[in-house]
């Protein structure tokens, strides 16, 4: 016995011979998914219930109302000789059919109120994480609770961005959802997410958790979830934030308590190792190697892996600023950003370390057709931060 | 004189020999006749519908498969933005103004609109605005790409075309306000003796209420976009957080305009349906007075629901509850209207010519959009569906199956009066069924995509969404081609005067049952000038009594 959805699915597959050979992504979208994601938080369970309740109520109303209309269309037509009646008002009937919808919407509003109030209660969180929207990536700072002090950026895997440009043939199941550093949280703990943004409005949402909260520059907002299952859960940016809006996914990895503790210890070790001494003098090769990584994770989303830019995004390959003998020009642009008539380069002084900035500038000055041979030391970046 | 195109057939010179109406291009550029201006508005709106439709099909071409095949994400955002702006401000709003221009004076027994020259001005303002809007594609950096809702602070990153769009919106707003003043003054002052407000046809009522909404909210939009403009160029920071501005304030102001705007686009549609259903049910509109009250309630409620577009911005829980309750309340007067139409059909003697098919199609499909609106109004569900394809499905169900279907109903209903010829009934029916099926094929699967979490305004998407997107794209092309079919199989023939000659009362049986109203008291095509002397009306204000002269 086939279920209705598999029947529908096979019908659709027959319609679309080029159907994509991807499988369902647990925690993310499924192929031919017809309803909400399987819920892993209590709020999402209640939202799912509310949606079924509304869907059934609306379907019943729809069927009742339109069976009356189609009965009338069938029976009260001229071709079957039905004469037109003459009535055209009835206060009683009109009062009744004003009151009934009114009562129905009250019946709908009551459960909705209950779920809404529960979903807005962000107090007593076990772990507070700030999610910052950047064009076009997410930054996570663990503010309070286990893991406090951990901080990283989360960017779409650059190979997925390239696959997109190339027409997305033979894509993996997590196409456009794979990030370099997923947000990691413990299971069964109340996680409060504080959202804000660096440039324009973004929106942080994960369907399986039933959360979505706009990230607004200059303002902080919050939401929360308590995942009852471990695993990987995926979301995307839900508010139009410019060119690469479709390429800043959210990946949340929910771990058991012990694994989470181990992850935190690991992160803190990495953070300590990353805290470079800005006085250190680097060689060109080391800086370039480090710069290439920074470029892929931070710059390539806009300036493209080939350094050619796109649309209003200026190219770095052959750029006069990058090739200028005065290194400080490029250091200033990277530190403080720049606004031109057609676009905006964000400021990176708050996000990247002196060493990262020195490395990525050195990389761009000596890559593609740029051969300046210049080397920017972290101390020079530090000198330009004032 | 044909009312639609000059120079063909039937030189009824006697109709207008005494007023020296200009001919050739002067007739249109200097037009002060409400019928000519109505025709101009309708042709303009149809042109914009086609342009907006081409943009939509470019979007659907890109989304046919995952990956970027045809446009880059930059251009994709421009396409979605311009599709929205052109359809809302270029197609739907001017089309309804065109219907008002043609039908309001005819329905209330007035010789013309109150301010004939302002009428001309308000039409000719929309042309430069439309050229500015469409031309922005060719400006440096391309067209605006911040969505039709032009949310700050993304608008602050846009190129010079954003200024062009703001300028165009200002002009369109001025034009809409002039048009509204004209409609209000015409309806309130120029009704024929005996045409009391509560005897007025529903189409006039819905437009009267719409015109008040327009006057109330177009200045609000003008304020929001002016602040955007000064933020962009004059160093103010109304919405720029870098200087202490509030991006959410933009959304509040925009949607204080935007939600009544939704009803501006649907109330005249309700009016058209309220004319068409009684005519083909051969029965008077059920609950006329409650229809007027329901329309007014919808208009008033539309001012206190705007923040339901902003449930994810993080309002306090009391704010969310208020906007949730207020929004759900709108379901009540809307339900009353649906019930009234069905009660009008009940025990009627219905026939199903093309206008009635569109009207029944409207009621059926628009109600689906209304019910998904109720689901979206529930804030906890909206948290999941906000900015997904579910929302796209919902508003296309109310704006395409709502406004556009009603306009087609109105076109098929009144075109015999406008052109003097009957459209081809078989082609009209093909147009209807083809549009109805392809519309649902396009927009119904979007509900599934939205429930599965596919965000809107995405140039590329996870491959699990591929199958439904393919179905949607196929439906979209079919729907687009159905409208091209309408152009060649229905619209152009009647404009050229090809077809059976239309009788004065095409929708009445020999015994008189059928369409009612003063527009059917004048010959087909409607003479250039009608009701030059106020007609004497019967008690119901639906017929002229005494002298048969309509002009």
Structure description:
The complex is a heterodimer of chains A (386) and B (551). Chain A is α+β, with helices and mostly antiparallel strands. Helix content of chain A is 40%, strand content 16%. Chain A contains 10 helices and 12 strands. Chain A has a 5-stranded mixed sheet, with no helix packed on it. In chain A, helix 2 (42-75) runs antiparallel to helix 3, helix 6 crosses helix 9 and helix 9 crosses helix 10. The termini of chain A are far apart. Chain B is mostly helical. Residues 6-17 of chain B have low confidence and may be disordered. Chains A and B meet through helix 1, helix 2, helix 3, helix 4 and strand 7 of A and helix 4, helix 10, helix 11, helix 12 and helix 13 of B.
Task: Please outline the helices and strands.
The complex is a heterodimer of chains A (386) and B (551).
Chain A lengths: L3 H12 L26 H34 L15 H29 L7 E8 L2 E8 L6 E4 L3 H8 L17 E4 L4 E7 L4 E5 L4 E5 L5 E5 L5 E5 L14 E6 L1 H18 L9 H20 L16 H4 L3 H10 L1 E2 L4 E2 L8 H12 L12 H7 L2
Parallel strand pairs in A: 1-5, 4-10
Antiparallel strand pairs in A: 1-2, 2-3, 5-8, 6-7, 9-10, 11-12
Helix pairs in contact in A: 2-3, 6-9, 9-10
Chain B lengths: L12 H4 L8 H5 L4 H30 L9 H36 L7 H20 L25 H29 L12 H32 L13 H18 L2 H15 L6 H14 L15 H13 L1 H15 L8 H24 L1 H7 L3 H31 L5 H27 L14 H30 L56
Helix pairs in contact in B: 3-4, 3-5, 3-17, 4-5, 4-6, 4-15, 5-6, 6-7, 7-8, 7-9, 7-10, 9-12, 9-13, 9-15, 10-12, 12-13, 13-15, 13-16, 15-16, 16-17
């Amino acid at each position: 016995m086939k279920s209705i959805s598999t029947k529908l699915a096979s019908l659709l597959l027959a319609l679309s011979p080029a159907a994509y050979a991807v499988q369902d992504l647990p925690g993310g979208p499924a192929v031919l998914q017809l309803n909400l994601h399987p819920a892993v938080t209590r709020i999402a369970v209640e939202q799912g219930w509310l949606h079924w309740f509304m869907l059934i109520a609306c379907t019943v109303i729809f069927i009742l109302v339109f069976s009356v209309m189609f009965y009338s269309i069938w029976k009260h037509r001229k071709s079957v000789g039905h004469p037109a009646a003459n009535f055209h008002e009835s206060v009683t009937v009109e009062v009744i059919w004003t009151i009934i919808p009114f009562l129905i919407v009250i019946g709908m509003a009551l459960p909705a109120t209950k779920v809404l109030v529960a979903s807005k209660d962000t107090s007593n969180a076990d772990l507070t994480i700030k999610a910052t929207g950047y064009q076009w990536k997410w930054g996570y700072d663990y503010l309070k609770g286990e893991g406090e002090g951990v901080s990283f950026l989360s960017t779409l895997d650059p190979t997925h961005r390239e696959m997109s440009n190339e027409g997305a043939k033979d894509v993996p199941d997590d196409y456009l959802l794979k990030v370099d550093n997923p947000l990691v949280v413990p299971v069964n703990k109340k996680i409060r997410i504080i959202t804000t943004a660096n440039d324009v409005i973004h929106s942080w949402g994960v369907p399986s958790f039933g959360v979505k909260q706009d990230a607004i520059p200059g303002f902080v907002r919050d939401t929360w979830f308590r995942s009852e299952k471990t695993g990987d859960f995926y979301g995307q940016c839900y508010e139009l934030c410019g060119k690469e809006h479709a390429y800043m996914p959210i990946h949340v990895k929910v771990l058991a308590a012990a694994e989470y503790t181990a992850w935190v210890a690991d992160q803190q070790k990495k953070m300590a190792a990353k805290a470079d001494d800005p006085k250190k003098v680097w060689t060109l090769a080391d800086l370039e190697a480090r710069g290439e990584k920074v470029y892929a994770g931070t710059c390539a989303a806009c300036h493209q892996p080939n350094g050619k830019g796109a649309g209003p995004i200026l190219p770095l390959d052959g750029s006069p600023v990058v090739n200028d003998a005065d290194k400080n020009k490029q250091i200033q642009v990277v530190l403080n950003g720049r606004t031109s008539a057609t676009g905006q380069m964000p400021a990176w002084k708050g996000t990247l370390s002196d060493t990262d900035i020195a490395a990525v500038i050195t990389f761009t000055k000596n890559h593609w057709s740029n051969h300046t041979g210049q080397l920017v030391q972290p101390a020079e970046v530090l000198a330009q931060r004032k | 004189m044909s009312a639609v195109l000059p120079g063909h057939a039937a030189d009824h010179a006697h109709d207008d020999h005494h007023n020296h109406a200009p001919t050739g291009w002067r007739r249109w550029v200097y037009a002060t006749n409400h019928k000519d201006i109505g025709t101009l508005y309708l042709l303009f709106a149809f042109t914009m519908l086609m342009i907006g439709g081409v943009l939509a099909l470019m979007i659907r071409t890109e989304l046919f498969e995952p990956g970027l095949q045809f446009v880059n994400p930059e251009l994709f955002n421009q396409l979605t933005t311009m599709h929205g702006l052109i359809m809302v401000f270029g197609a739907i709003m001017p089309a309804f103004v065109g219907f008002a221009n043609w039908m309001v004076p005819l329905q209330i027994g007035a010789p013309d609109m109150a301010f004939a020259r302002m009428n001309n001005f308000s039409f000719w303002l929309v042309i430069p605005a439309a050229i500015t809007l469409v031309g922005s594609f060719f400006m440096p950096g391309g067209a605006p790409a911040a969505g039709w809702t032009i949310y700050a602070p993304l608008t602050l990153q846009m190129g010079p075309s954003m200024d062009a769009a703001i300028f165009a919106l200002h002009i369109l707003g001025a034009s809409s306000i002039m048009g509204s003043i004209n409609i209000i003054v015409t309806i309130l002052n120029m009704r024929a003796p005996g045409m009391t407000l509560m005897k007025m046809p529903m189409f006039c009522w819905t437009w009267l209420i719409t015109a008040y909404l327009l006057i109330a909210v177009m200045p609000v939009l003008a304020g929001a976009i002016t602040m955007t403009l000064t933020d962009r160029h004059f160093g103010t920071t109304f919405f720029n957080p870098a200087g202490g501005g509030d991006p959410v304030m933009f959304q509040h102001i925009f949607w204080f305009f935007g939600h009544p705007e939704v009803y501006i686009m649907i109330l005249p549609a309700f009016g058209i349906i309220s004319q068409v259903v009684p005519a083909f049910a051969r029965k008077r509109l059920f609950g006329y007075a409650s229809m007027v009250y329901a329309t007014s309630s919808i208009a008033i409620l539309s001012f206190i629901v705007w923040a339901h577009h902003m449930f994810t911005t993080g309002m306090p829980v009391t704010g969310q509850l208020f906007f949730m309750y207020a929004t759900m309340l709108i379901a009540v007067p809307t339900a009353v209207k649906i019930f009234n139409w069905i009660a009008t059909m009940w025990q009627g003697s219905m026939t199903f010519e093309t206008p009635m098919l569109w009207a029944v199609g409207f009621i059926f499909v628009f109600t689906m959009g209304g019910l998904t609106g109720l689901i979206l109004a529930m804030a906890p569900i909206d948290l999941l569906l906000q900015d997904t394809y579910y929302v796209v499905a919902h508003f296309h169900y109310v704006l395409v199956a709502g406004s556009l279907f009603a306009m087609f109903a109105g076109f098929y209903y009144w075109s015999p009066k406008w052109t003097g010829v009957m459209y081809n009934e078989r082609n009209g029916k093909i147009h209807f069924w083809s549009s109805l099926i392809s519309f649902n094929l396009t927009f119904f699967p979007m509900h599934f995509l939205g429930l599965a979490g596919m965000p809107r305004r995405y140039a590329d998407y996870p491959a699990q969404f591929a199958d439904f997107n393919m179905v949607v794209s196929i439906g979209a092309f079919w729907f687009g081609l159905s409208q091209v079919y309408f152009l060649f199989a229905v619209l152009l023939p009647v404009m050229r005067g090809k077809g059976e000659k239309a009788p004065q009362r095409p929708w009445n049986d020999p015994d008189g049952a059928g369409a009612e109203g003063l527009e059917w008291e004048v010959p087909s095509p409607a003479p250039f000038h009608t009701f030059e002397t106020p007609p004497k009306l019967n008690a119901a204000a639906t017929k002229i009594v005494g002298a048969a002269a309509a002009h």
